[in-house]
Amino acid sequence: MNLKPPEPVLPSVPGAEPDAPLLALLRPYVRHCGNAPRAAWHMDRRLLLDFLLVYIESGHGRFSVAGVAYDAAPDDLFWIPPDTEHEMEGFAPAMVCPYAHFDLVYRPEASHWDFSIPGGMTELGELRPLLHPPVPEPRLQALCGRLRTPANRRIGLLLNEICTEAARGQPFAPLRMSGLLLEIVAELLRAQAGLPAECGGHIPGLEHAADWLDKHGDAADAVTRAAALCRLSPSYFRRLFARQFGCPPRDFRKRGRIRAAKQLMIGSKLNLSEIAGRAGFASVHSFSRAFRAVEGMPPGQYRRCGHVQTRVEGRRTPYSH
């Protein structure tokens, strides 16, 4: 009796994955970004030439995108495609809403325009040759308006990192910002594809625990107490938390303090001792050690800025988005 040998199982070939065409298509270019707190504000109806992504970090407002009105609340994410009518309003006392204007496809001949489109501009007219072309990817074409995904908080952190990188203005900053924007796109596509059943039901609890760790993460029993908020064992909580946020709970708190310190180094004239205290470090020495461990350089070196290439709030005259 002749048995046909089984077909060999070939290893996955890099570039053969179903999503590989996205690698050839997407070349993000960040044009303008910001994350400064703002008092009550209003942007009248308008159209844009590029994409706009806004994360509501704190405060409330009212957004309208493509004729659909939304109450904007913390942890909401808004994706506004080019040539899409929208209107935005932030309520008193203040909002913090990191944002970025960007192209998904960099075009050397057409991407280097540098101006803001004001509210009330609902006809692009002679600017239309600069309009971002349609992206031939259905999953990206489906993004519009308010997005509520398990990745929203992580995307907000990435948007803040883009703003910090732009304000710092070091060489090759646009390259790193492009990579951060690709991370954001990947998170949105993952959210569309769905999460593993193991962690999907725990997302609200993990988000609540992350908020708690931001405020109380220095306590000796912080991880145990945060796990109790999710009704999980500490070991299982650590595993799900790392899967959701990309780092263990202890590192999440440390990175949050480092992130706050980076924003103060770029956006204020405080000395390093004052920054260390405001960011929650016991001393400038512990701050320097932690900063070097996360960033690979001392804070003084990080603070020295290079050539600025991207418009960002807090660097020169603020731009309205």
- Strand count: 10
Per CATH, the class of the largest domain reads: Mainly Beta
Instruction: Provide mean pLDDT, rounded.
Output: 84
Strand content: 5-15%
Provide the CATH superfamily of the largest domain. Regulatory protein AraC
Instruction: Give the proportion of residues in helices.
Output: 40-55%
What is Rg?
22 Å
Helix and strand sequence: HEEEEEEEEHEHHHHHHHHHHE
Which word captures the global form?
A: globular
Question: Strand count, sense and closure of the main sheet?
Answer: 6 strands, mixed
User: What order do the strands of the largest sheet run in, or round the barrel if closed?
Assistant: 9-6-3-8-1-10
CATH 2nd-level architecture of the largest domain: Sandwich
Q: Give me the CATH fold name of the largest domain.
A: Jelly Rolls
Give the helix tally: 12
When the domains are counted, the total is 2
Alpha-beta classification: alpha+beta
Distance between the terminal alpha carbons, to the nearest Å?
A: 75 Å
**Low-confidence stretches at least 5 residues in length (pLDDT < 50)?**
314-321
Structural description of this entry:
With 321 residues, the chain is an alpha+beta fold. The protein folds into two domains: 170 residues, Regulatory protein AraC (Jelly Rolls); 102 residues, Arc Repressor Mutant, subunit A. Helices cover 40% and strands 14% of the residues. The protein is built from twelve helices and ten strands. A six-stranded mixed beta sheet has the order 9-6-3-8-1-10, with helices on one face. Strands 2-7-4-5 form a four-stranded antiparallel beta sheet, with no helix packed on it. A hairpin with a 2-residue loop joins strand 4 and strand 5. Helix 3 packs antiparallel against helix 4, helix 3 runs parallel beside helix 9 and helix 9 crosses helix 10. The N and C termini lie far apart (75 Å). The C terminus is likely disordered.
